[in-house]
Specification:
Length: 130
């Protein structure tokens, strides 16, 4: 029993927090999808009203651009919580970018940048925190 003290408690807690973190990421992804749908509907209403009034309307953005380096920081945080690493597609799914070509490319660019800076590495097709 002496082996099952602090180390086992920490392993169980890490596993519990890892699962909870993944649940929160999934919820956030669903909320982002819902917000994007609302923004599309608002853009359609704006376009309809502008067309009716004979005006040109600029498209509505879903939000301001993220600060420089934010995506890299999120990827690094994600990889730090996964000691076995993640494949590119797993990172894209975890960040809620699946299906969005621009976001997928942005994640690929961030992965390349992090790897070039030796902040992350890769092994067997999986990215790992350095």
């Amino acid at each position: 029993m002496p082996n099952n003290t602090f180390e086992s408690l920490m392993a169980k807690e890490r596993e519990r927090l890892g699962k909870k973190r993944e649940e929160v990421i999934d919820r956030r992804s669903k909320l982002d999808d819902e917000l994007d749908g609302i923004d599309r509907e608002l853009s359609a209403i704006d376009a309809y009203e502008a067309a009716k009034a004979g005006k040109v309307v600029k498209s509505r953005k879903s939000g301001a651009r993220a600060p420089r380096g934010e995506k890299r920081a999120k990827i690094l945080e994600l990889l730090s919580s996964k000691p076995d690493g993640l494949a590119r597609r797993e990172i894209i799914e975890a960040m809620g970018a699946k299906g969005d070509k621009n976001s997928e490319q942005s994640i690929s660019n961030a992965l390349s940048s992090l790897k070039k800076a030796n902040t992350i590495g890769s092994r067997d097709g999986r990215y790992i925190a350095a």
